[in-house]
Amino acid sequence: MDYPLPEYLVEKAVREALAEDLGLAGDITTDPIIPEDARGAAAIVVREPGRIAGLDLAEAAFRALDPGVKFERLLDDGAAAEAGATIARVEGKTRALLTGERTALNFFGRLCGIATLTAAFVAKVEGTGARIADTRKTTPGLRAFEKYAVRCGGGANHRFGLHDAVLVKDNHIAAAGGLGSALERLRARAGHMVKIEVEVDTLDQLRDALQFPIDAVLLDNMDVPTLREAVALAQGKVLTEASGGVNLETVAAIAETGVDLISVGALTHSPRNLDSSLEWTP
Fold first, then answer.
1. Do 7-112+272-281 and 123-269 share a fold?
2. Does the keyword Glycosyltransferase apply (predicted)?
3. Is 272 annotated as ligand-binding?
4. Is 102 a catalytic residue?
5. Which pLDDT does position 2 carry in this prediction?
């Protein structure tokens, strides 16, 4: 994948996940059963078709417990896998494989689920020119990984946080006393590299927003005919993003209105983990 996950973020997340699982006593099931010098091998297998994501995290979970572990990837992140496919093989200390199994699969299954759902949305809008994007509706602490999984599924990333792009929403406008006041204060503060997007609910709000030097408009919860009018009004002036009421049944019609982006919160707040397992190899 382009733009791989930063190693320091992977290691930090894995350490925290293992600490949560191992607590103060360690693995009180595995350690009494398995000799310290025992070695084993296993395979990560998916039980259903899907898009792969999260192998860096899975590998790091085992490597944190056994720095000498061998982790062989048979498919890479971003690849499509069939049901029953072996995704990776891992060999090392048996204790490490058994103790790290759940942490590895939790990360792997979650990110594969996001990538798989994203790929389904991307397929629905193929040929329209619209891009599928994520939102900030992510699991606290896992945003970088969940947004990475969206990229593995062929989607695009929206802003990563409140710190890297401006999105003026209805409550900002109400609290500031109007859009003009809000934008005047933003322009006095925002750096020259910072993009400004404004959320609008109606065509009148869109016309008002287009009077100002902004970069994008978020067309919130508009029906398809209204979206089509909004795209025509904004054409060539700003980037258009549709949001709200987007699902696999509605996304194609939304894309056909000509919007540039369709942001889908469900990509990260409502995916189903891809069914996967660690299968022991004799």
1. no
2. yes
3. no
4. yes
5. 67
Which CATH number describes the domain made up of 7-112+272-281? 3.90.1170.20
pLDDT at 191 over 90: no
Q: Which amino acid is at 84?
A: G
pLDDT at site 4: 83
Query: Is 137 annotated among the ligand-binding residues?
Result: yes
Query: Would you state the pLDDT for residue 236?
Result: 85
CATH of domain 123-269: 3.20.20.70
Question: Coil, strand, or helix at residue 109?
Answer: helix
pLDDT tens sequence across 249-278: 999 999 999 999 999 999 999 999 999 999
Separation CA 277–CA 123 (nearest Å): 27
| Active site annotation includes 137 | yes
Residue 145 phi, psi dihedral angles, 5° rounding: -75, -40
Residue 1 pLDDT more than 70?
no
- Annotated ligand binding at 109? The verdict is no
Catalytic residue among 89, 143, 169, 228: 169
| Distance separating alpha carbons of residues 184 and 12, to the nearest angstrom | 40
The token pair that represents 186 in the structure block: 């933003």
